[in-house]
Here is the input.
Amino acid sequence: MKLLTVNFLTCAVKTCKTSSESYPLHFRDAQLEQNPQTFNPLFIRNILSRLDWSALTTTANELGLTAMLPDHNPADDMMVDSEGATEEEKNRAKDNVISEEVLKKLHTFLVDTAVIEGKLVCGNCGFEYPIKEGVGNFLLPPHLV
Amino acid sequence: MDNDHIRGEEYEQTNVHNVYSKIATHFSSTRYKPWPVIDDFLRSLTTGSIGLDIGCGNGKYLAIRDDIYIVASDRHVTNLTSNEIDYFGVAKSLTRKYRSSELIEFATQHEPHSAIVADILSLPHPGAVFDFAISIAVIHHLSTRERRVDAVRAILNTLRPCGEDREGSGSAGQALFFVWALEQKNSRRGWDVDDEQDQMVPWVLKADKSGDGVGKTYHRYYHLYRRGELEEDIVAAGGEVVRSGYDRDNWWSVARRR
Here is the structure.
């Protein structure tokens, strides 16, 4: 399971959906693997605005991979508040591109790095979802459906 | 949870999930060509779009784009009989061959996408974040209208709502649904408007990993949609139909949150 995937997962239990504790899910006993994939800078660039950076930071910290992740979303540097910004600021933001080096680093973290065995745990109900051979299993036992 | 809901679930376990687990290899070998409506829908997306494929089967739609990101899910399990599988859909005997879901095993082969095992009525995804979703030939396996509408609602809830445009992503998130049509008088099955909508459909097993069960017939439950019914379910689920049509014995709709 790629680390990118975890940003788009939460607990499957209905009553957990409204709790902020259920997102992101927390890794336990995670066994990491590097699986180099094709690097597509535009793909990574466009995915940035769809990420929950705080959840991503939590995931990185829990896996001991804090160093792989910038402390804030590089896409935020591209955003300029159109109300308050001067012409100059807007132009600078427009010209400002995220360096390929930063994108490559993010690619390594989001796409190349995967959890191959382990568990994802809900911070609200404590339910543990198993990951086996890289595939997370989110089927619930009958009493939790 | 009410009794109808529990009964519906038990019914589908016997008449949908257990059957797919037996026919997965053969079924998968017949499902490789993407249909044009689905192909066009996926090709229209911007690079970096994030979406879901709910009931992805062998993951044939994951091969169309490698510059978008799809979290694909299915709940169907291996060629094992149901008593060899625990309630997580995981084989009790941990031989590598059988450890994860068989259809999902096919789906994991497509990069950069991800495949997980999940149930359509208990999706493990946050709401209001996805650019798109597809659910192809899935909700017609749910055995009550309430469950079908719940499934549509669950999928629509994952989509980015109107008015939350994102850079390079256009407007609100959209979902594409495909369901089998009641009106298919020229098909091999030959059903039409006057036929019963709830059908047990035979699948004759032609190939199996072990060679066991060849020639054996399995029956899967289907709800055949009449004209307009998919759109009614979408509206009942709080959605809005963007466009819809009929293609190869199936009704389809593109929908978004209202």
In short: Confidence is low (pLDDT under 50) at residues 77-100 of chain B.
